[in-house]
Structure formats: C-alpha cells, structure tokens
Amino acid sequence: MTSQDSGYEHLAPLFKEFASQPDDDPRRQQLRDELVTGHLPVALHIARRFAHRGEPLEDLEQVATVGLINAVDRFEPDRGTDFLSYAVPTITGEVRRHFRDQAWSMRVPRRLKDMHVAIGAAVSVLSQRLGRAPRPSEIAAHLKCGVDDVLEGLEAASAYRSASLDEVLTDDDPAGQTTADALGEADNALDQVEYRESVRPLLASLPERERTILLLRFFGNLTQTQIAQQVGISQMHVSRLLAQTLATLREQMTSD
Amino acid sequence: MVAPSGHAEADSRNLVEVRIAASAAQISAVRVVAADIAARQDFDLDAVSDLRMAVDEACATLVPLAVPGSVLSCRFMVGVDSIEVLAKVNVPRPTRVQQNTFGWRVLSTLTDEVQAISQDFDDADGRPSVGILLCLRRDRTIG
Fold first, then answer.
1. Whether A228 contacts A127, CB under 8 Å
2. What is the pTM of this model?
3. Which of A85, A194, B18, B89 is deepest in the core (most CB within 10 A)?
4. Per-residue pLDDT tens for A26-62?
5. Comparing C-alpha atoms, which of A151, A132, A173, A169 is closest to residue A245?
6. What is the pLDDT of residue A104?
7. What is the pLDDT of residues A109-156, one digit of tens each?
8. If you average pLDDT over every residue of chain A, what do you get?
9. Residue B70: band (very low, low, confident or very high) from pLDDT cuts 50, 70, 90
C-alpha cells in the first residue's frame, strides 16, 4: 500500500497539524477523530483479512480500530514515512496479539499461559525420560515450582478453545506405516463389539487422525503418551482429541 | 446387585459427591471435578485424562436411562492409591446398563475396574436405580 494512490492523501496534511497541537487543545481532539474516522476503512480491511479464524468479525474490527487509534497517536510525520506504511503493521500487530491473547475461550492470566507452555515442554521431556505420562508432582519438580502452580496450569489448558486445534489436524499424518499395523489388530477387537454396525460407519466418517487415535487407545490399548509418541503430537493434544472424538461419536450415536 | 466395595468410602473425609440434574448439559461439572481430584492425588496425566473421560462416559450412559427431571449423583471415594467413582441415577423401572456397547468398551479401557450396578429397590429410597462403579489405581500396570 503506497501513499500515491491510497485514497488517503487528503488526510496527510492533517498529521502535521495534529502533531503540532498541544495535547489539551480541542482542535487536536477534533483532528484525531478525523484521522481515525478517515482511515477506518484500512482497519476494517485488515480485520477482514483475519476473519474465519474462529474470532467474531466485530471483535476483530474493534481490535483493529484500537490499533488504528494507537497508530494515529504514535505516528511521527517528521520521520518521513507515510502513515499507512506505519499503520498497517501496527494494526496487524494488534490483531495478531488479540489472537494470541484471546484465542483462549476464558480469560487466563498471562502467568498461567506461560505456565501452560512450560508444562507442555516438561511433559514431553518427562514422558520420554519416564516412559509414561508424568505426574503433577514430577512436573513441579522438573520446573522447580509448586505442585499447585502445575495444577493451575493444567486447568488453564482446558480453557484453550479446542476449535483452533482443528486447524492443526489437517497436517499430513506422520504415523503412516505404524498406524496401518495397529489397525489390523484393532479390527478383530472391533468385531467383538456388538454395536459395530452403528459404530463402524461413524468411525469411518472420522478424520483420519482422530480415528487412528481412537483405535489405538480403545482397540490397540496404547496409553495416551504412547499414542502421542507414535502420532507425533503432545499427550495433552491426544487427550483433547480423544475427549472430543468420544463426544462426537456419542452425539451421533444418540441422534441416529 | 453388587454393593460398592470401596474401602475408602467408609471414611467420609475422603468423599466427594457431586449431584447434577440428569442431563447431558450438566455432565461437564462432574468431569471437571474428576480431573481435579485425580490431578490432586498426583495421578499421572494419562490417568487424569482417562478418569475424566471415563466419568464423562459413565454419566453419558446413565443420563438417558434416568427418570426425567431426576438427579444424577456421582460419588468419588478418594483413596491414597485409587479413586473409586459411583455414578448413579434413579430409573423409571428396573433395568440394566448395556455392556455390549462401544461406550462400555471405552469405560473398560479407561479404568482398572468397571462394574454395572442395578438395584430394583435402592436402599436409599426404595426406587429402582442403575449405576456404574469404576476404579482407577494410581499405579497402573496397563494402559
């Protein structure tokens, strides 16, 4: 986006005047309003670029507008760059930050989010070392923090909106060969379930990774940690996927 | 049919009981309590997750059987090395929990022990009830 043909050139002179006004001048407030309103289409445009990622568009537009206001306030016309080349990254950054902070369906304090990340890393290290999922006390010892902090952090994990995880699932399945091996065995066990006629088509309709995880857990008798290693995702991710898949299956079985 | 064996039950200091409307919408509360109890007993994360899913499955199995508008009670008997859970609903007429279902397979995979319980005349109120008793041990040999 350049200043030559952006449709916002008429606003450029206002920045010089805006910058020269003292903070408490009513004219400054008026110019600020004018600049923000005038550039509003830029913010809305950026917001729309982030639509369909699980956050309501109205929220994104609000966040982008906040970004625009910040950009107007902080822009220094004397620097020689035009406003848009400063504003676009500023607004985009604001929207990105929104995703980072708000993609949690519940407000979770920053500290807990960091804890959640630290726990995730600790779980994978410890799982390798122990050959099974770690206990909260073991995670606490590893992170040199209290067990209560770990428990809180684990709780925060369940506040992360699972919808955003769906995007990860379309990745190629690295389990490949091993999955096929496990399935051969799984089918025999599946035959013993009298409800197979109703379960089987539902299983077939699941995304491949969910189906694999489900079969490995309930017909291959692997633990979540073993599945995580085999499929190449975290134990917490396996846990969420399993719970989600069971809920989906149950819903479909009862609705039939 | 079979009374809960829970040795932990005798000591009410280790008891947590959650009562919810027997409705699918309320099960999440029990699920959260289950996960919290297991994590605080320092069960490993696989077991925490297994208990949460098992309790979810047990409640989801019982809810459709329950007398409409009645209550599902879920008792957690928390021992040092195990957690026993008894989920129970009153039913309109004596019945059994189906054990040839996919759901039952899920339950038996996730727990160390699972038992369906049917009482034609529940001790508590003389009405028929069905329940699911499950047990998870802190140190499990299998997955």
1. yes
2. 0.59
3. B89
4. 888 889 999 999 999 999 998 988 776 666 788 889 9
5. A169
6. 58
7. 667 767 877 888 888 889 888 888 899 999 999 999 989 888 888 877
8. 76
9. very high
CB contact under 8 A, B46 and A137: no
> Which residues of chain A does B44 touch, with a Cβ-Cβ cutoff of 8 Å?
132-135, 138
Q: Which amino acid is at A101?
A: D
User: Could you tell me if B107 and B54 are in contact, meaning their C-beta atoms sit under 8 angstroms apart?
Assistant: yes
Do residues B106 and B132 touch, judged by C-beta distance below 8 A? no
Residue type, B75: R
Compute the average pLDDT of residues A6-35: 85
Residue with tokens 């537009």: A61
CA B61 to chain centroid, in Å, comes to 10
Please tell me the distance from the alpha carbon of residue A255 to that of residue B89, in angstroms, as a whole number.
22
Candidates A106, A119, A132, partner chain B, best to mutate (most B CBs within 10 A): A132
Q: Region A199-223: what's the mean pLDDT?
A: 85
pLDDT at A1: 45
From CA A225, how far away is CA A218, in angstroms rounded? 14
* Best to test chain B binding among A240, A246, A248, A255 (most B CBs inside 10 Å): A246
